[in-house]
Structures are given as C-alpha cells and as structure tokens.
Design goal:
Strand content: under 5%
Distance between the termini: 51 Å
CATH architecture of the largest domain: Up-down Bundle
Radius of gyration: 21 Å
Shape: globular
Structural class: mainly alpha
Number of helices: 10
Order of helices and strands: HHHHHHHHHH
Largest sheet: none
Number of domains: 2
Helix content: over 70%
Number of strands: 0
Length: 268
C-alpha cells in the first residue's frame, strides 16, 4: 500500500523508535522516490534518512571488523577448516555492505544531489556520498578499492568546495565533512600528515569563530570539534612513535597547541 509523504515520515520515526532500522531505510527510500526532483527533502527528512542508513551500515561495518579479526586469528592458528568458514561468512557480510552502499548512492546520485538547492544540503549530500564510497573502500580490494577511493575523494572535494565558500567554519556540516575527510586520508590513503593538517586547520578555524556560534548548533559543533581534537591527539601519538628525536619538538608543539585549544572549548 502506498502511503503519503507525511505517512512515510511518521512510519520512519516509528521504525526509529522501535530500532528497526532496515524498515526505517525502506520507508525513507519510498519517501524520496515519491518526491519530485524539485521536491527537496526537509532538514528533518534529510536527517532521518541519514540516521536510518547510518545505523544499518554501522552494524554491518562492526560485524565486518569482528569477522575480519577472527579470520586473522584463525589464520595465525593454522585452523584451515575454520578459515574457510570465516572467509565465506565475511564474503556474505561484504555483499550486504555493498548492497546498502549501492542503495543510498543510487538515491544520492539520481535524486538527492541533483535536487539540492541550498549550500547546506549540497554539502550534506556530497559528504554523504563520500562517506558511503569510503565505506566501500574499507573492505574492497584491488581495482575496486582504488575506484571507491577515487569516488570518495571526488565527492569530498566537491563538498569541500561548497563548504569553504558558503558555510561558516563552525557550521556542524562543514566540521563533519572535515572530520570524515581527514579520516579518509588517515585510514584509506594512509596519509597521516594530510589528515592531521586538515583536521587541525578545521579545528583552529572553528576555535577562532567560536564566539559567533549560535545556540541551536553549539552542541553539535563542539561535539565534532572534540572528535577532531581526539583524532589529532591519537594520530600525532601514533606518528610520534615513528619520528626521530630531531622532529619531535615540532610534534610536541602541535600536541601543546591541541591542549590549549581544548581549554578554549572548555571555557566557552
């Protein structure tokens, strides 16, 4: 039975409350499919779509990490019979991951990105597009991984161009983009220097304009700033293990700067 847009919205909220996220995805997909290209999603609808997919993909990504870890342990124990079973199970999880990513990427490319009219929604959807290509790059191998990484880079760069031009440094969507883009550099491209510089720049620019932050987005923005800082602290700690003594003072200066920045957040 086809429902109205308002009914799909209500059912999506109901599914969220019941923590039935796959059904939530289904309701939001139907809501999007029933919208005309000119009918851009509201902020509430947009956020519900994001929450639905984030929960579904989140459980699958967690499952993949656990299964991959078990696979490595079984291989180290030379447990060949178990390795065969685990590999087959991992392949099943990867198929599910691919299908979920394909679903949201199709929606983004065919409807959501083309219908975005505001800078905020453009950045939101392009960032989302980059996120799901990145999730593919986490488990794909060979040419498929390379293609997923290239698609991630292109999507994040397109989002970044709009964000830097039109969104304030403290805007939570711009900060979220910087957070995820820097994670992409660190985890997928293994470029720790670029990851740190991107996260640090986003953090510093936001700190400089913290006093202009509106009450409605203060909580979201400062939370993402904390995540940026946490990543920087972790990444610089990892990097320090590979640095020789001569380069450590510069790294220590960065860590001290991060501590001073945190003081500014805490005092706000």
């Amino acid at each position: 039975m086809d429902l109205t847009r308002e009914q799909y919205l209500y059912m999506s909220k109901l599914a969220e409350q019941a923590e039935r996220y796959e059904e939530m995805v289904n309701f939001m997909e139907k809501l999007v499919a029933g919208s005309t290209p000119a009918g851009e999603l509201t902020v509430e609808e947009r956020n519900l779509l994001s929450v639905a997919y984030k929960n579904v993909i989140g459980s699958l990504r967690a499952a993949w990490r656990i299964v991959s870890s078990i696979e490595q342990k079984e291989e180290s124990r030379k447990n060949d019979d178990h390795v065969v079973l685990v590999k087959d199970y991992r392949s099943k999880v990867e198929t599910e991951l691919s299908n979920v990513c394909a679903g949201i990427l199709k929606l983004l490319e065919s409807n959501l990105v083309p219908s975005a009219t505001t800078s905020e929604s453009k950045v939101f959807y392009l960032k989302m597009k980059g996120d799901y290509h990145r999730y593919l790059a986490e488990f794909k191998v060979g040419d498929e991984r390379k293609e997923a990484a290239e698609d991630t880079m292109n999507s994040y760069k397109a989002a970044q161009d709009v964000a830097l031009a039109d969104l304030a440094p403290t805007h939570p969507i711009r900060l979220g983009l910087a957070l995820n883009f820097s994670v992409f550099y660190y985890e997928i491209l293994n470029s720790s220097d670029k990851a740190c510089s991107m996260a640090k720049q986003a953090f510093e620019e936001a700190i400089a304009e913290l006093d202009t932050l509106g009450e409605e987005s203060y909580k979201d923005s400062t939370l993402i700033m904390q995540l940026l800082r946490d990543n920087l602290t972790l990444w610089t700690s990892d990097m320090q293990q590979f640095l020789n003594f001569k380069t450590r003072p510069a790294m220590n200066e960065l860590i001290l700067t991060l501590g001073l920045m945190q003081d500014q957040i805490d005092e706000s």
